[in-house]
Specification:
Radius of gyration: 23 Å
Distance between the termini: 57 Å
Number of strands: 13
Strand content: 25-35%
Structural class: alpha/beta
CATH superfamily of the largest domain: Formyl transferase, N-terminal domain
Strand order of the largest sheet: 7-6-5-8-9-10-11
Order of helices and strands: HEHEEHEEHEHEHEHEHEEHEE
Helix content: 25-40%
CATH class of the largest domain: Alpha Beta
CATH architecture of the largest domain: 3-Layer(aba) Sandwich
Number of helices: 9
Largest sheet: 7 strands, mixed
CATH topology of the largest domain: Rossmann fold
Length: 304
């Protein structure tokens, strides 16, 4: 057998280029401001001068509100951090009075809250384990023991946090402690059937997502799918939105609808509704984790 010496210079990438590729970091910038000439030029010049390459760019010019919303994903030297970019970009942001934020590749940490219905939790766990959720689920919190086995089978801590009127404030205080202890970025209410207090809603503003059937406000109260059946609905849907003190009135991130007909009874409508809920919620979570959702007063801009 003849041994042939190989020259390292014949590898696919020169060592210098391979090292540079290893050091490449990816960032995302999101910003909103009053629409003015020169904003995009200022941004692209800022990135060019620091050797960054723009990988993805989306913007929305809202002519009605005279505002600009923008998301740019870019890559370059790992010597930069979001904090350094934030500091160096500040003069441009001040010039245009921008609300802005830089993010790196660090995945958002998620706390999922659930009650007795487990379809949304199951879907989130499936997508998380498959790597398509966009964030990292850190733990599951519930006011029932129903889904302990599901969470623990996925290797996640399960925290039983019962809620009764006399202990609600204590339970919410403990929830905020868990958010801090586990460095949580996003709280997801995956059919968590408890109304959050105004104080908790304010504490989680912009970082808590809820899901509900889009029959609201048309079919409020108990047994919404029975109400829908009685009215002969032709569309079943769900709405994922940010949590606010106004119940189910937060800025909408995503909605899903599925067409039905007269042959669907309450049980079939409920099954279809659960599919819609799981789809809408998982999309909303992924888009939030990928920094694709920009809050705009009571609405959102979503760069899908």
């Amino acid at each position: 057998m003849t041994l042939v010496a190989t020259d390292s210079s014949t590898s696919t990438l020169p060592q210098s280029e391979a090292r540079a590729e290893d050091q490449t970091q990816r960032f995302v910038l999101t910003l909103s401001c009053v629409e003015r000439a020169g904003i995009v030029q200022a941004l692209t010049t800022f990135l060019f001068e620091r050797g960054f390459n723009i990988d993805e760019h989306q913007q929305f010019d809202d002519g009605l509100r005279q505002t600009l919303h923008l998301r740019s994903a870019f890559s370059g030297s790992s010597a930069y951090t979001p904090e350094r970019l934030q500091e160096e970009f500040r003069p441009i942001a001040d010039l245009f009075d921008m609300k802005f934020s830089f993010h790196d590749q660090t995945k958002q940490r998620i706390l999922v809250m659930v009650s007795k219905f487990g379809h949304c939790l199951n879907d989130l766990l499936f997508r998380w384990r498959g790597g398509s959720l966009g964030g990292e689920i850190a733990l599951v919190v519930s006011n029932h023991e129903t889904h302990r086995a599901m969470a623990e089978a996925a290797g996640l801590p399960f925290i039983y946090l019962p809620v009764i009127p006399e202990t609600k404030s204590d339970a919410e205080r403990r929830l905020l402690e868990l958010v801090d202890e586990h460095d949580i970025d996003l709280v997801v209410l995956a059919r968590y059937m408890q109304v959050l207090s105004d104080d908790l809603c304010r504490a989680l503003e912009g970082r808590a997502i809820n899901i509900h059937h889009s029959f609201l406000p048309g079919f409020k109260g108990a047994r919404p799918y029975h109400q829908a059946y009685d009215r002969g609905v032709k569309l079943v849907g769900a709405t994922a939105h940010y949590v606010t003190a106004e119940l189910d009135e937060g800025p909408i991130i995503e909605q899903e609808v599925i067409r039905v007909d007269h042959s669907y009874g309450p049980t079939a409508l409920s099954t279809v509704g659960q599919d819609a809920e799981a789809l809408a919620l998982s999309r909303a979570v992924r888009w939030h984790c990928e920094h694709r959702v920009l809050l705009d007063r009571t609405s959102t801009v979503v760069f899908r």
